[in-house]
Amino acid sequence: MTRRFNELLLGFDAREMWLEFSEDWSEERQRLFLLRRDIIKPLSADTVTWRSVFDAQTSPQPPEWEHSIMGLWNNLATHQEYLDTGWSARTHPHWLIAVTLHREGHERESMVERYARSEEIIPALRDPAWELLGYDVCDEWLLSGLTDLAWGDGSPEEVQAIRQKYVPCLNEYHLFTSVDSAAEFIPLAEEGARAHAPFFVFGLWLIKKQEGLAQPD
């Protein structure tokens, strides 16, 4: 039975799409952190896994006041304007995305929700036209329990069991295809990183693709 989740729009970011999977992820990193390896590249709410364009490039940097919720921009139009005027000369491939928080109504309130309610997110609701990239499982600071925990350090039997259960639920971006499968993964993430618990389900939504006219230097 499908559970009912509420959805909260947290903000926006521009993420790099110019780094090749094999360029950014060594064989050892793939072995340790990925459950599925036959993918295009891992995407995530976590900027350690999927870099913001401002992390992947040293300049220009965004104004600090725009980073109000875990590094996410709170105003989509302002973010797009900054990309068009302050960064577009580089014209590197990147995707403009939205991040949403998905919570079951009976769960306890989190710091993430308090942060979100304290800010004015514009627009306040997700546009139905935005394309779902998939669902991630992260702590309240967006550390991913799916791609930022060293699963490969476990026993071969444990790793194989986890892969058999969850790899069919992951898409070509190493994201869960449904909220339910992501929610089912939460206890495993919390067991693997108890200091970061609780974990939550975050949705990644593609707003716009910028294919780019040149590769970065």
Q: Can you offer a commentary on this structure?
A:
The protein has 217 residues and is an alpha+beta fold. It has one domain (5-210). It is 27% helix and 23% strand. It contains seven helices and six strands; from the N terminus they run βαααββαβαβααβ. It has helices spanning 21-24, 27-33, 53-56, 76-87, 111-117, 156-166, 179-192; strands at 5-16, 67-69, 72-73, 94-104, 131-139, 199-210. The chain has a four-stranded antiparallel beta sheet with strand order 1-4-6-5, with helices on both faces. The protein has a two-stranded antiparallel sheet with strand order 2-3. A hairpin with a 2-residue loop joins strand 2 (67-69) and strand 3 (72-73). The protein is globular. It starts with a strand and ends in a 7-residue tail after the last strand. The model has no long low-confidence stretch (mean pLDDT 85).
What fraction of the residues are assigned to beta strands by DSSP?
15-25%
Rg over alpha carbons: 17 Å
- Using the alpha-carbon principal axes, give the shape: globular
**Percent helix among the residues?**
25-40%
- Oligomeric state of the chains present here: single chain
Q: Distance N terminus to C terminus? A: 50 Å
Question: What structural class results from the helix and strand content?
Answer: alpha+beta
Strands of the biggest beta sheet: in what spatial order?
1-4-6-5
| Residue windows where pLDDT falls under 50 for at least 5 positions | none
What is the number of strand segments?
Answer: 6
Q: How would a textbook summarize the main sheet?
A: 4 strands, antiparallel
Q: Tally the helices: what do you get? A: 7
Order of helical and strand elements = EHHHEEHEHEHHE
- How many discrete structural domains? 1
Mean pLDDT: 85
